[in-house]
Amino acid sequence: MNIKQLRSFLVVAQEHQITAAAKLLYTTQPPLSYQIKQLEKEVGTNLFTRKPYGLELTNAGKSFYRYAQQIVSLATNAEEELKREDKGTMGSIRLGIISSAGNIIPNPKVRQFTQYYPEVNIQITDANTFSLINKLNNNLLDLAIVRAPFNMQGLATKQIGKDRMVAVANPQYFALPKGELNLKEISQQPLILYRRFESMFNESFAQNGLRPFYAVKCDDARTAIHWADQGMGVALVPQSIGQVFSDQQLRLVNYSQWNTQTMVVWRKDQPVKPIVDKFIQAL
């Protein structure tokens, strides 16, 4: 049984005649009659009875008609959907996002993209850079927004943002010096460490002969900000997320080696779906 047989069956049922149905199907009576007989043989029962005015569906034929309509309708919808996916006008995008993406996404370009392609579904996975790259390599994501540095082997990359580091503190508990902060001023505060940057911070402090105190360590930039807001210390996070999630005082860090890049990445060895490619261009 195939879709062609089912479509032929539906036309014959609607026309009540093989000859009339054959004209609509751009075929002749013998091959169409053979198709119907083969279909009846496959389902194991007669689907039509002959009447003076033409063909009439049997009770089994009426039941089969309902199923055939559903199957053909699903097949038609699937064909149309695949064509639109192939053209990049609809589909699903599996997107990984780091917690420190902040105001980088969504942005006006992404909003414009979803308005232009209303049938696109975006499935978001929140995780850290290394977890997202692992999911990408295991084909669980189409693309991911991550923060450098990371292992770029096998990945296509495009930079979408730059960030300076900021210190976040509740002025009720910690009065930070005015203006941009240097490493010595930062090291004198009880710090809330977002572990993503632990090795980078430790290396910089050590090179400058400083020994900071980490009051809190966590794995999410939003957690670091929340604890800073509650007066548990001073959080060091990228500026983009600090501006989004904190109402407290922010001080830029005057140390260029702590500046980071946000990038969108996807696998080089996998074909990029048209709709995903358009999303990358929007980013």
Automatic annotation (TrEMBL):
SUPFAM superfamilies, sorted: Periplasmic binding protein-like II (SSF53850), Winged helix' DNA-binding domain (SSF46785)
> What CDD domains does its record include?
PBP2_LTTR_substrate (cd05466)
Q: Which residues form the HTH lysR-type domain?
A: 1-58
Q: Which InterPro entries match?
A: LysR_HTH_N (IPR000847), LysR_subst-bd (IPR005119), WH-like_DNA-bd_sf (IPR036388), WH_DNA-bd_sf (IPR036390)
Taxonomy, superkingdom = Bacteria
**According to its UniProt record, what is one Pfam family this protein matches?**
LysR_substrate
Q: Which UniProt keywords apply?
A: DNA-binding, Transcription, Transcription regulation
Family of the protein in this entry: Belongs to the LysR transcriptional regulatory family.
Under what name is this protein listed? Answer: LysR family transcriptional regulator
Q: Which organism is it from?
A: Limosilactobacillus fastidiosus
Organism ancestry? Bacteria, Bacillati, Bacillota, Bacilli, Lactobacillales
